[in-house]
Design goal:
By secondary structure, the protein is an alpha/beta fold. It has one domain: Rossmann fold. Helix content is 45%, strand content 13%. The protein has 12 helices and 7 strands. The protein is globular. The N and C termini lie close together (10 Å). The structure holds adenosine-5'-triphosphate and magnesium ion. Residues 12-18, 40, 44, 150, 206-207, 237, 239-240, 243-244, 247, 262 line the site of adenosine-5'-triphosphate.
Length: 278
């Protein structure tokens, strides 16, 4: 069964999506079967993989979650097929998962997820919808990586409920580092109430500007505060315009600048993640 990793932090713009793309593709390059899931209504993961207009896509994660929320007993007359609800879900998943040229599969996301998140709120088992969907494909992959939106809403809770581990990218700057405490409290709460097995895979220092003392001070502070009880990845992702360029051109850092320092860092991070095993 594949390992489910969620990449989350309620702070925006800290490198979640960039990490999802490049970790996913590096794992695929290492021969792993990988599925990336875009659980952000912004559709940034989908767009970063080169799908230019996520909002115009016909099948997305929103349809998968809807298939689960609306069992097909609504079908009537000649449309009626006697099938269990789960088959409706499996069929929707099959129609939705895309195969990307760089070797990963993608369950795309778009703005429709915002509406789905609202309608989830009144459902029973609303925290477990994504987990149920993932259970249908877990055997097909070695790694399933979920890119979360910058909030602690129901979609993020679903991702944490479905995950074995969470990677928390943190930008080496004052305010993003401060927001970490709130996120860690959410992880603890999810662990207590919904998903006892959830582990923190690690805090990932991203967009690190090695030239500044300020970044060094923030990093020292993060180590001092959390280093004794939470893993902090040895690999730090350097700040580089190459990373921004690669997201904008819809390709991974390995296709955009394979010899650069960001590509090297994501390769190293991938080794650390693979070493962790489960
Ligand atoms: P959101 O919270 O909006 O989902 P995010 O946490 O997913 O954001 P990204 O989209 O990965 O963050 O990154 C934010 C911006 O910073 C993007 O334009 C991206 O291309 C750029 N970026 C990511 N990593 C780096 C880096 N190492 N160096 C420079 N720019 C980067
Ligand atoms: Mg993002």
């Amino acid at each position: 069964m594949g390992k489910v990793i969620c990449i989350a932090n309620q702070k925006g713009g800290v490198g979640k999506t960039t990490t999802c793309v490049n970790l996913g593709i590096a794992l695929a390059m290492a021969g792993k079967r990988v599925c990336l899931i875009d659980s952000d209504p912004q559709g940034s993961l989908t767009e970063s993989l080169g799908y230019r207009n996520p909002d115009e896509m016909e099948n997305t994660l929103a349809d998968v979650l809807k298939a689960e929320m609306e069992p097909d007993d609504k079908l009537s007359g000649s449309d009626y097929v006697e099938e269990p609800v789960c088959d409706n879900l499996s069929r929707t998943l099959e129609n939705t998962i895309l195969h990307h040229v760089e070797g990963v599969d993608l369950l795309p996301g778009n703005i429709e997820l915002a509406g789905v998140e609202v309608s989830m709120v009144n459902l029973m088992s609303r925290e477990l919808l994504l987990k149920t969907a993932i259970s249908k494909i877990r055997n097909d992959y070695d790694y399933i990586i979920i890119d979360c939106m910058p909030s602690l809403g129901m979609l993020t809770i679903n991702a944490l409920a479905a995950a074995d581990t969470v990677i928390i990218p943190v930008q080496a700057a004052y305010l993003p580092a401060k927001g970490l405490e709130q996120f860690l409290m959410t992880v603890s709460k999810v662990r207590r109430q919904i998903n006892r097995k959830l582990r923190i895979e690690g805090i990932l220092l991203s967009m690190v500007d090695c030239r500044t003392n300020f970044a060094k001070e923030i990093i020292a502070l993060i180590y001092e505060t959390y280093g004794s009880h939470i893993k902090i990845f040895q690999t730090q992702i350097p700040l580089s315009v190459r990373a921004a360029e690669s997201s904008a051109s819809g390709i991974s850092i390995f296709s955009h600048d394979s010899k650069g320092k960001v590509a090297a860092a994501y390769r190293e991070l991938t080794q650390e993640v693979m070493k962790d095993g489960r």
